[in-house]
Structures are given as C-alpha cells and as structure tokens.
C-alpha cells in the first residue's frame, strides 16, 4: 500500500470517512454539530479570524472522533473479549474526543461573547 498515487490515497481516506459515517453514531453527531457551527457562522458573520478558528476546531474534533473510531475498531478486532487494558485504551481515546469537544465549546462561547 505504500507509494501509491494521491488519487488512490484520497480514495482510501474517503472510504474511511464513509466507514465512520455508517458505523459511528458519535461521528454523525459531531458532523451535525459542525453543520450547526457553520450555520452559526453564516448567521453571525463574525470576522474572518473566527471562521478560521471555528474551522480548525471542527477539524480537530472530527479528527479526534476518527482516531477514536479507528482505535476502537482495531482494538475490537485484535481483542474482541473484554480486557482491562483494551478498555483503558478505548476510554483514553474517548477522553481525547471529550477534550477536543470541550475546546470546541469554549471556542463557541468565546465567539458569542466577542460578538456581544
């Protein structure tokens, strides 16, 4: 799979997004939240720097959710039975999503406050 063309690598990434959309409810929720954030930007029309901050925040949250989904899928495949270490890995990955989401909430609140 190494040294493949850009188009093929892009296709693999698109397949990953499709897989996450179909199998991960949390990913779908995060994408919907991103849509609401985008709608809020269109309605509030903040300065361009806020568009960049919100876009970067959305990317971080979605990437964290994708990493979490990948870790969970790999963990379940390698060790389908319950195991304390596998549970710790999954919980830590979920905590990363929680941290990113908390940061996104802070960005959203900061945006609203700056426009008041």
Give the arrangement of secondary structure elements.
Blueprint: H1 6-23, H2 25-44, H3 48-78, H4 84-115
Helix pairs in contact: 2-3, 3-4
The ordered string of helix (H) and strand (E) elements is: HHHH
User: Largest sheet, if any?
Assistant: none
- Dominant shape: globular
What is the CATH level 1 assignment? Answer: Mainly Alpha
What's the count of strands?
A: 0
Q: How many structural domains?
A: 1
Termini Cα gap? 51 Å
Q: What's the architecture in CATH terms?
A: Orthogonal Bundle
Low-confidence regions? none
Describe the structure.
The protein has 116 residues and is an all-alpha fold. The protein has a single domain, classed as Helix Hairpins, CATH 1.10.287. 87% of the residues lie in helices and 0% in strands. The protein contains 4 helices and no strands. Helix 3 runs antiparallel to helix 4. The longest helix is centred in the C-terminal third of the chain and has 32 residues. It is globular. The termini are far apart.
């Amino acid at each position: 799979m190494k040294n493949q063309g850009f188009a093929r690598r892009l296709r693999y990434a698109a397949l990953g997004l499709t897989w996450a959309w179909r199998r991960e409810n949390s990913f779908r929720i995060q994408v919907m939240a991103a849509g609401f954030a985008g709608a809020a930007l269109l309605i509030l029309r903040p300065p361009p720097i806020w568009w960049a901050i919100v876009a970067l925040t959305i990317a971080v949250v979605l990437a964290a959710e994708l990493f979490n989904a990948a870790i969970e899928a790999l963990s379940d495949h390698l060790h389908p039975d319950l195991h304390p270490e596998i549970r710790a890995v999954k919980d830590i990955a979920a905590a990363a999503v929680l941290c990113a989401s908390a940061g996104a909430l802070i960005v959203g609140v900061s945006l609203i406050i700056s426009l008041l």
